[in-house]
Specification:
Elements: H1 2-22, H2 33-56, E1 71-81, E2 84-93, E3 101-105, E4 115-121, H3 127-149, H4 159-168, H5 172-176, E5 191-197, H6 220-223, E6 225-226, E7 247-251, E8 259-263, H7 264-271, E9 291-295, E10 303-304, E11 306-307, E12 312-313, E13 320-325, H8 333-344, E14 349-350, E15 369-375, E16 379-380, H9 385-390, E17 399-404, H10 411-415, H11 426-432, E18 435-440, E19 451-460, E20 472-473, H12 476-484, E21 489-490, H13 494-498, E22 503-507, E23 522-526, E24 540-543, H14 585-600, H15 604-613, H16 628-634, H17 639-647, H18 662-665, H19 668-677, H20 688-695, E25 702-703, H21 705-716, H22 720-738, E26 746-747, H23 748-752, H24 757-763, H25 765-771, H26 795-814, E27 828-833, H27 843-861, H28 866-871, E28 873-878, H29 889-903, E29 910-911, E30 917-918, E31 926-929, E32 932-935, H30 936-953, H31 963-979, H32 983-987, E33 990-994, E34 1000-1005, E35 1008-1011, E36 1020-1027, E37 1030-1034, E38 1040-1046, E39 1049-1052, E40 1057-1060, H33 1079-1090, H34 1094-1105, H35 1109-1112, E41 1118-1119, E42 1122-1123, H36 1138-1152, H37 1155-1168, H38 1182-1188, ...
Parallel strand pairs: 27-28, 43-44, 44-54
Antiparallel strand pairs: 1-2, 3-4, 4-5, 6-7, 7-8, 9-19, 10-13, 11-12, 13-15, 14-15, 16-17, 17-18, 18-19, 20-24, 21-22, 22-23, 23-24, 25-26, 29-30, 31-32, 33-34, 33-40, 34-35, 35-36, 36-37, 37-38, 38-39, 39-40, 41-42, 45-52, 46-47, 46-51, 48-49, 49-50, 50-51, 53-54
Length: 1394
C-alpha cells in the first residue's frame, strides 16, 4: 500500500513539473498559484536532499539501500601452496560498499597441518564484523581443536564473540586499531566455509614451486641453457637421449665442476615433486661431505667440564680439556674392549674429587676412572630450524655446540688385533673421527654447570643433513692464531689423510677470525705440518651451507615409487688412518656387493667415497664380469671418478662375459673422457683444441683439406672406403665449414665456433654411423648426400646476402624508389583476381583463385619490358573485399598466391621424391594455364622474371623449386665470368639449324656447342673459341673447323651453312657449367646433383667409390633411357671408365634433362636483374637464401626485433616512452617468445605479410616494422602529466602540463621549469624529472586513454603495406594474448583482418 501511494505521488509530481515547465512559455497560465508554489517547494527540497545526502550518509544503512547502479568491478586473488591452488573473486554489486569478507588460509597450524581453510563471511552485521571474524576465526578454530584434542572439554564460544572478546580485552595498541572500534550494532557474522584436506608435496626444500634444481641445489631454469635438437647428451635421470624431446643443460658452479643434464619429461616430473635427486658430490679436497648426524648414547653425566689441576669447573665456553667417565664405555662390547685397551696402556686417569660447591649439579653417577678429551670453544647454533632438525640438534635458544676432537691415538696399533669391533658404531666414530656435542647453557647469574644434552657422530652420506659450500682459500695468518690456542688436531680419517690433509680444525659459528665468512661454522684443513713456516695452496675451509636438502635420516618420508628416483639412506663411517682391508671373505664380498649396487643405481657420490676408502674395488668384477668401468660406460659419470678409477688401477681392457670392454660400451662422451684420463691419442670431442694442434703439422694455425681428411679418418678409425667418404665430405663442405673464418680456411675458430665443424660432427647422424664402420673396407658407408633440402646459411653467406641487399637498394634509388615502396607513381596497375578469402581451409578453392590470378598476371605482364618490371606494378585485387592502392602489402600477397599457384601441385613442374619441384622435360612443349595453352619455355621465362621481381621487392616466398634450379642462376654467370667468354660467342647463343632444314642441329651456349645425334643420345659437347675473327672448334684427330658469321649465318669451313631457328628466342645469358675432372671436381658435381636428386647422387658416389668390379659389369653407359654416348647401351662400365660414367650421368640429370626450361628460366631472371648483382665469392645457394629467407624465427631474432621496434618504432611517436604503451608493446614480444615457431610465423605474416624472415634477419625488413598503440592524451579536464612522489603520483600544475604537452608535440626532448625556487629539468625521452640542485630524479608519466573507436574488445590489425601492427591499449598481458592469438591464428589469405 505504501509503495502504491508513493508511486501515485511521484507520478503526480512529474506531471505537474512538466506543466510548470510548459507554463514558462509567454502567454500560458495553466496552474493555480498554490499548485505552482508547491511544485517549486518540492523541487527545491529534492535538490537540497541530493546535495546534502553524501555528507550525512557515507554508506548505505543497515539492510543496504540500493545505489544508482551495480558495481561490477571484480577483485580477484589467488595463490598456490605445495599441492594446492586456489582463487577467489568478489564483486560489490548494488550495495554502496563491500561488506562481506573472505578468509583463505593455505597452511593451518596443528592439528590442521594438512588442511586448508576457505570461508566467506556475511556482512549483514557490518563490514567491520565480517572483517574481524575472518581474521580471528582461524585462531579460534585452531584453539578449539587443540582444546578438544587435549581433553579439555568442548569449545562453544562462537568465532564472532571470541573475536569481539579478544579485541576488547587487548592492550592499548590493539584497541587503537581501527578493526577493534566496535559499534553497538556489531553482534556477529554468518559464514560459509570448508576445511579442504590435501596431500602436501615434499619437494626438495631448495626447490621453489615450479622449478627444478640440479643435485647441487642450483636452479636449472635460472642457470641452465637449452640443448639443441641434435645434442648427443643423455639425460642423467632417465638415461634417454635429451635430443629426442629437448631439454636443459646445466653446469654446477663449484670448484670441481660436474655436469647435469635433464630431458623435458624428467624436468616436468621433478617440478611436480615426484622425486628428488642426489646432490653432486665433489671428491675431497674439492668438496666436503655431505655428512649425516648419528646420535650416540652419551649421557649428561658422562662428560663434565672440570679443571683437574685447579679443582674447579672450567669455562665451558672456551673449550679445552674435559673428562669422559668410564660409564660411557660400558654401553657396548666394542666400547668395553676399547676401555680395556686404554686402561692397559695407562691412558685413563682417576676421576677428581667432586667437591662441587652448593648450587652446582652433582655427578652422582661418576666412576673412579675417566678419559681426557679435547673440545673446541662453544658457540650458539645459527642454523635454520629445518637444518637443526635434520642434523639432530636440540631446539632452544640456550643450545650451544662444540666439536669433540678425535683421540690422538694409533688406533690400528691399539685395536687392530681385536675381533668383533664395530667401527660403524656411532660411539666409536665419536672418539676416533670426532663429533658434535650440544650443551645447554646455565641461566645468567646461576652457579650451575653447563649440562651436556646429547652428542652426535658424523658419517658420509650422499643425502646427509649437513652440506658444505665450495672450499674457500685458507690464509697462513689464521693458522698461527689457531695453533697458539691448540685448535688444530691431527687428521684421523683415512679419506682425508689420503688426499694429503694432515691437520683439521673446527671453526665455530660466527668465528671472528673469518668474519664476515664462517657464520655457520665449518672445518679447516691443513696440508702441511704445524711446525712448517709455509702454506699449501690446498689449505682450505669448508663452511656449512645454510641452504640445502636437510632431511634427517629418520625423518624422510616414504620411498619414491619412481625407478629413477633413488633415495639414499645408507651412510658409511670413515675409516681410520692405517686401516687394512678386513681379512674376512664374507665382509669383502658384502662390501663388493654394496659397491656394485651403488654403481648399478648410478650413485656416483657413494661409489667415489667407497673407492677412496677401498681402492681394491676398482679391479673387482661382479657375476657378469663387469667392472666399475663398465657401469661408468653405461651411465653418465664425471672425469673425476674415472681419474680415481685409473689411480686405483682399474683395467681399461677388462672384458665382460660378452667380450666387450668399457670403451666398447661407452658413448662418444665416455670414450673422450677415457682417452683423456688414460692418456690415449687426442680426442676430437673431449680436447678439440689439442686435437687441432696435433694435426696441424705445418703449424700454420689452419688445417689444409688434406690434413683435415687425415685427421677425421684417424678420429673415426675408418678403412679405405671410409677415408674416401670423408674425402668427399671435405671437398663438398670445406668452404662452408671454413666460412666462419674470415679467410675461409679451417682454423681453430672455424672448428670451435657455433655452427663450425665440431658442431656439425656432434650433430651429424652420418658421422655417428661412420664410426660404426671401423676398419671394414667392405662396409656400406652412410649416405653422404642428405634429403634435407635447403641449406642453412653461414656467416659468410649472410654477408653475401647483405651485399646484394645493398646493391638492390642502390639500384632502386637510381629508379627513384624509396625503401619499402613497391612501385613508382606512374607504374602500371596490375588488376588481378583477389585471393580466396578462406585461405587453406579449402585448398581447391584457393588453388582455383590462385590459378586465375596467375593467368591474368601472365597475360598482362609477359610482354612487358624489363624497364616496366623494374618500375614495379601496383597490384589491385578485384572481386574481393581488399580494394585500394597497393603500398606494398598487396604485392606481398600477390607474390604469395602466385607461388602457391606455381608449386602448389604438379601442374607446371615435376614433383621430386624430396618434396621439391623441377622443370618439365624438354619434350613437354606447352602447358595448360587456367583456360588456355602457353609454351613451356614462355611460362618458365615468366617464372624467372617473377622470382627476380620478388628478389627486387625484397619479398620472401615458399619457393618449392629444387635447390639446383636456383643454383643454376648462380652457375651460368659464374661460368661466363670464369671462362671469360668473348662477346662474339655470346652473340651466337641459341639454337641453329642447317640452311633449308627445320630441325635443330646444335645449340651454342657460351663457349660450348651442343650437338645431338638423336633424341635418345646425350648431346655431345664441343669447345668453341675465337681464332682471329673466326669461330673455331677442335674435333677428333686434331682436326679444326672454323666458321664465320656473315649475314646472320654461320659459314663453316667444311661447307655447311647454319641459320638461326626462328621459333627459338634469343637467350640473354647462356653457358654450360663445367666441373674439373679431378676428385674434388667430381665431388662438387655430385653435390650439385644432390641438390636435385639426393638418392641418385648417393648411388653414383657408391658406384665411384664402393662398388666392386664384379658389380660394375651390370652397368652400361645409359641413364634414364638415354644413352650417355653413342652406342652406350652396349658398353659396360668398368673400373677404368666408372669416373666418366658418373660424370656423364650427373650432366644428363643436371644439364640436359630440362635444358630449355633452365635456359628460359635464367633468361627471364636476368632480363629483370643484371648478373652483376652477384658479388664475388658469393655462395652457390645465394638465390635460395634470398628467396626463401629463414623459416625458423628464433628468440634471438625476436629480441633483435624488440630492440628495433621499442621505442623507435612505437607509434604515436610522442607516446613512445609512456609506461602503459611500452608495457603493451613488450607484451607482444613476451607472447611471441613463449609461443612455438608456428605462431611466430603466423605473427610475422600478419604483421609484415611474409611468414619468413629475410636471411639478414629483422634488420633487413623494409620498411622497418612498427607498433601502433591506439591511444591519445587524456582530455583537458583530466590531468595528463604526473610525477611520482613518496606518497604516490601527483599531477603537475596546468601550466606545466601544457608546457610539457607542447614540447612533446614539437618533439623536443627537455623542458625546464621552476617550482618554489627549485629548478627542474624534464627529459621526455627518459620520462624523468631531475632537480638541478639536489640531483634527485623522479619518474613522470603522461596519462593516456584509448581512442574511442579502439576499445580493448577490438581485435589487433596487421597493416602489411607499412609493416605495422595496430593494437588497442590493453590492461593486462592475458587480455592482449587472447585477442592477438584470435587475430593471428584466424586470418587467411588476403587482408581479412589486416
Amino acid at each position: 500500500m505504501v509503495n502504491f501511494m508513493w508511486n501515485i505521488f511521484r507520478d503526480l509530481y512529474v506531471v505537474l513539473l512538466i506543466i510548470f515547465i510548459i507554463e514558462q512559455i509567454p502567454g500560458s497560465d495553466l496552474l493555480h498559484d498554490m499548485t505552482r508554489k508547491g511544485v517549486i517547494t518540492v523541487t527545491l527540497c529534492l535538490g537540497a536532499w541530493k546535495l546534502l545526502q553524501p555528507l550525512f550518509f557515507e554508506s548505505s544503512p543497515p539492510g543496504g539501500a540500493p545505489v544508482q547502479g551495480p558495481r561490477r568491478q571484480k577483485k580477484n586473488e589467488g595463490g598456490k601452496d605445495q599441492g594446492l591452488e586456489w582463487a577467489a573473486s568478489e564483486m560489490q554489486g548494488w550495495r554502496a560498499a563491500m561488506e562481506d569478507a573472505v578468509c583463505i588460509v593455505g597452511t593451518l597450524p596443528e592439528p590442521f597441518e594438512n588442511q586448508a581453510l576457505f570461508a566467506v563471511f556475511d556482512g549483514h552485521g557490518g563490514s567491520q564484523v565480517s572483517h574481524i571474524a575472518s581474521k580471528e576465526f582461524p585462531k579460534v578454530l585452531t584453539a578449539c581443536a587443540n582444546k578438544i584434542s587435549s581433553g579439555g572439554g568442548s569449545c562453544s564460544s562462537s568465532p564472532g564473540r571470541q573475536a569481539a572478546s579478544d579485541c576488547h580485552d587487548g592492550d592499548k595498541e590493539d584497541k587503537e586499531d581501527k578493526d577493534c572500534q566496535f559499534s553497538p550494532q556489531l553482534h556477529g557474522s554468518w559464514f560459509l566455509g570448508a576445511l579442504c584436506p590435501y596431500t602436501r608435496r615434499h619437494a626438495n626444500p631448495r626447490c621453489s614451486w615450479g622449478s627444478m634444481l640440479c643435485p647441487s641445489g642450483h636452479e636449472i631454469r635460472a642457470q641452465g641453457k637449452p640443448l639443441s635438437l641434435f645434442s648427443r647428451y643423455n639425460c642423467n635421470v632417465c638415461n634417454d637421449k635429451v635430443s629426442r624431446r629437448g631439454g636443459l643443460y646445466h653446469k654446477c658452479p663449484g670448484v670441481n665442476r660436474c655436469e647435469f643434464r635433464v630431458c623435458g619429461q624428467c624436468y616436468q616430473e621433478a617440478v611436480e615433486g615426484h622425486y628428488d635427486l642426489e646432490r653432486c658430490i665433489d671428491a675431497f679436497p674439492h668438496g666436503f661431505g655431505p655428512l649425516s648426524a648419528h646420535h650416540t648414547s652419551l649421557q649428561p653425566e658422562d662428560l663434565t667440564a672440570f679443571d683437574i689441576t685447579a679443582q674447579r669447573p672450567v669455562n665451558w665456553r672456551t673449550g679445552g680439556t674435559w673428562f669422559l667417565a668410564s660409564t660411557f664405555f660400558a654401553r657396548s662390547s666394542s666400547l668395553t674392549q676399547l676401555w680395556s685397551v686404554l686402561q692397559s696402556h695407562g691412558m685413563t686417569i682417576s676421576c677428581p674429587a667432586t667437591s662441587i660447591e652448593e648450587g652446582q649439579a652433582s655427578n652422582e653417577g661418576a666412576a673412579d676412572q675417566c678419559l681426557l678429551v679435547q673440545l673446541s670453544p662453544a658457540a650458539a647454533v645459527s642454523l635454520p630450524v629445518d637444518m637443526r632438525k635434520g642434523a639432530g640438534i636440540p631446539e632452544g635458544p640456550d643450545i650451544f655446540v662444540v666439536w669433540l676432537y678425535p683421540l690422538q691415538l694409533e688406533w690400528q696399533t691399539l685395536l687392530g688385533d681385536l675381533q668383533d669391533v664395530d667401527w660403524a658404531q656411532p660411539e666409536l666414530s665419536l672418539l676416533s673421527v670426532g663429533g658434535f656435542v650440544y650443551i645447554r647453557a646455565p641461566e645468567l647469574g646461576s652457579r650451575e654447570l653447563a649440562q651436556v644434552v646429547c652428542a652426535t657422530s658424523i658419517a658420509y652420506s650422499p643425502k646427509g643433513a649437513l652440506s658444505f659450500a665450495s672450499p674457500l682459500p685458507w690464509q697462513r695468518a689464521w693458522t698461527a692464531k689457531l695453533r697458539r690456542s691448540g685448535r688444530f688436531r691431527k687428521v684421523t680419517a683415512e679419506k682425508w689423510a689420503a688426499a694429503g690433509a694432515q691437520y683439521m680444525c673446527w671453526l665455530r659459528p660466527g668465528e671472528a677470525l673469518l668474519a664476515p665468512r664462517g657464520r655457520n661454522g665449518g672445518f679447516a684443513f691443513l696440508f702441511h705440518g704445524l711446525d712448517e713456516d709455509s702454506e699449501d695452496s690446498r689449505d682450505c675451509f669448508f663452511e656449512i651451507a645454510s641452504e640445502g636438502s636437510l632431511e634427517s635420516e629418520a625423518s624422510r618420508g616414504q620411498e619414491s615409487l619412481q625407478p629413477t628416483a633413488v633415495r639414499l639412506r645408507s651412510s658409511l663411517p670413515f675409516l681410520l688412518v692405517g686401516t687394512v682391508e678386513a681379512a674376512s671373505p664374507l665382509r669383502q664380498q658384502e662390501r663388493t656387493r654394496q659397491f656394485f649396487q651403488a654403481a648399478t643405481e648410478r650413485r656416483w657420490g657413494l661409489v667415489a667415497h667407497m673407492l677412496a676408502e677401498w681402492p681394491c674395488l676398482a679391479t673387482r668384477a661382479d657375476e657378469l664380469a663387469q667392472t666399475a668401468l663398465h657401469f661408468c660406460a653405461l651411465g653418465a659419470t664425471s672425469s673425476e671418478l674415472l681419474f680415481a678409477l685409473n689411480g686405483a688401477g682399474a683395467l681399461l681392457e677388462a672384458k665382460n662375459l660378452e667380450g666387450r670392454t668399457a670403451y666398447d660400451l661407452g658413448d662418444m662422451t665416455f670414450r673422450a673422457l677415457v682417452s683423456q684420463v688414460w692418456g690415449l691419442l687426442p680426442d676430437l670431442f673431449s680436447e678439440p683444441e689439442v686435437w687441432f694442434d696435433y694435426w696441424d703439422k705445418s703449424k700454420t694455425n689452419q688445417l689444409e683439406p688434406e690434413e683435415l681428411i687425415a685427421a677425421l679418418a684417424a678420429a673415426y678409425q675408418v678403412g679405405e672406403v671410409g677415408r674416401r667418404w670423408i674425402e668427399t665430405y671435405v671437398h663438398i663442405h670445406y668452404q662452408k665449414l671454413s666460412a666462419i673464418d674470415p679467410h675461409s680456411m679451417m682454423t681453430k675458430i672455424a672448428l670451435l665456433s657455433d655452427g663450425g665443424l665440431l658442431h656439425v660432427l656432434q650433430s651429424s647422424d652420418e658421422f655417428v654411423l661412420l664410426r660404426g664402420k671401423e676398419n671394414k673396407t667392405s662396409a656400406r658407408m652412410p649416405a653422404i648426400f642428405q634429403t634435407e633440402g635447403h641449406k642453412r646459411p653461414t656467416a659468410a653467406d649472410k654477408a653475401a646476402v647483405d651485399k646484394i641487399g645493398t646493391f638492390l637498394a642502390a639500384f632502386r634509388r637510381q629508379l627513384g624508389l624509396r625503401p619499402g615502396q613497391p612501385a613508382l607513381r606512374n607504374a602500371r596497375v596490375l588488376e588481378v583476381r583477389a585471393p580466396f578469402a578462406g585461405g587453406d581451409s579449402d585448398p581447391a578453392s584457393r588453388m582455383s583463385a590462385a590459378r586465375e590470378m596467375l593467368a591474368l598476371s601472365f597475360a598482362q605482364t609477359t610482354a612487358r619490358s624489363s624497364k616496366e618490371w623494374l618500375q614495379g606494378f601496383k597490384i589491385k585485387f578485384k572481386g574481393g573485399d581488399d580494394k585500394g592502392i597497393d603500398e606494398g602489402g598487396l604485392t606481398k600477397a600477390w607474390v604469395k598466391e602466385i607461388a602457391y599457384a606455381l608449386w602448389g601441385d604438379g601442374a607446371f613442374f615435376d614433383a621430386k621424391d624430396s618434396g621439391y619441384c623441377f622443370f618439365k622435360a624438354d619434350t613437354e612443349r606447352d602447358l595448360l594455364l587456367h583456360r588456355f595453352h602457353v609454351k613451356t619455355e614462355s611460362l618458365y621465362r615468366w617464372v624467372g622474371r617473377f622470382l627476380a621481381y620478388a628478389v627486387y621487392q625484397g619479398c620472401t616466398l615458399d619457393c618449392r623449386l629444387c635447390p639446383w634450379s636456383l643454383r643454376w642462376l648462380f652457375r651460368v654467370p659464374e661460368e661466363v665470368s670464369r671462362r671469360q667468354v668473348p662477346e662474339q660467342l655470346l652473340a651466337l647463343a641459341g639454337d641453329w639449324q642447317i640452311e633449308g632444314s627445320h630441325d635443330v642441329i646444335a645449340t651454342i651456349c657460351g663457349s660450348t656447342l651442343l650437338s645431338s645425334p638423336g633424341d635418345r643420345v646425350l648431346p655431345v659437347e664441343t669447345f668453341l673459341y675465337m681464332s682471329s675473327d673466326r669461330v673455331a672448334a677442335d674435333l677428333e684427330d686434331d682436326e679444326v673447323v672454323t666458321a664465320s658469321l656473315e649475314g646472320g649465318k654461320l659459314h663453316w669451313s667444311d661447307g655447311e651453312i647454319w641459320t638461326r631457328c626462328l621459333e627459338s628466342p634469343l637467350p640473354k645469358l647462356t653457358a654450360i657449367p663445367t666441373w674439373p675432372e679431378t676428385p674434388a671436381g667430381d665431388d662438387q658435381l655430385l653435390e650439385d646433383l644432390a641438390s636435385l636428386d639426393p638418392p641418385s647422387a648417393n648411388s653414383l658416389w657408391r658406384v665411384q667409390h664402393e662398388m666392386s668390379d664384379e658389380d660394375l659389369q651390370w652397368l652400361t653407359f645409359s641413364y634414364a633411357g638415354v644413352e650417355l654416348e653413342p652406342g652406350g647401351d652396349d658398353r659396360e662400365v668398368d673400373a677404368s671408365s666408372k669416373d666418366r660414367y658418373v660424370r656423364l650421368c650427373c650432366k644428363a640429370a643436371l644439364l640436359f634433362q630440362a635444358h630449355h626450361g633452365l635456359q628460359a628460366f635464367s633468361d627471364g631472371f636476368f632480363d629483370v636483374l643484371p648478373p652483376s648483382l652477384i658479388p664475388p665469392g658469393a655462395p652457390a645457394d645465394i638465390f635460395q637464401f634470398l628467396l626463401l629467407g629463414s623459416q625458423d624465427i628464433s628468440s634471438e631474432q625476436l629480441a633483435a626485433l624488440e630492440d628495433l621496434v621499442i621505442p623507435q618504432g612505437v607509434m604515436p611517436k610522442h607516446f613512445c616512452h609512456n609506461p602503459a604503451v611500452l608495457a603493451c608493446c613488450r607484451w607482444v614480444f613476451e607472447i611471441a617468445r613463449d609461443s612455438d615457431n608456428s605462431f611466430r610465423s603466423r605473427l610475422f605474416e600478419f604483421w609484415t605479410g611474409s611468414p619468413r624472415l629475410p636471411i639478414g634477419g629483422v634488420a633487413a625488413i623494409t620498411p622497418k616494422p612498427r607498433l601502433q598503440v591506439m591511444v591519445q592524451a587524456a582530455p583537458k579536464p583530466m590531468q595528463s602529466w604526473e610525477v611520482e612522489l613518496e606518497d604516490g603520483w601527483q599531477a603537475f600544475d596546468e601550466s606545466i602540463a601544457n608546457q610539457l604537452s607542447q614540447m612533446q608535440a614539437s618533439y623536443k626532448r627537455q623542458v625546464e621549469f621552476s617550482v618554489r625556487g627549485q629548478k627542474h629539468v624534464v627529459d621526455l625521452h627518459q620520462m624523468q624529472q631531475v632537480n638541478e640542485r639536489t640531483g634527485v630524479r623522479r619518474a613522470i608519466r603522461q596519462t593516456v586513454v584509448r581512442i574511442q573507436s579502439w576499445p580493448k574488445t577490438r581485435l589487433p590489425e596487421g597493416h602489411t603495406c607499412g609493416n605495422e601492427l595496430w593494437l588497442p591499449l590493453f590492461d593486462s598481458r592475458e587480455e592482449l594474448e587472447s585477442s592477438l592469438r584470435t587475430s593471428v591464428m584466424n586470418f587467411e589469405a588476403g587482408f581479412a583482418l589486416a
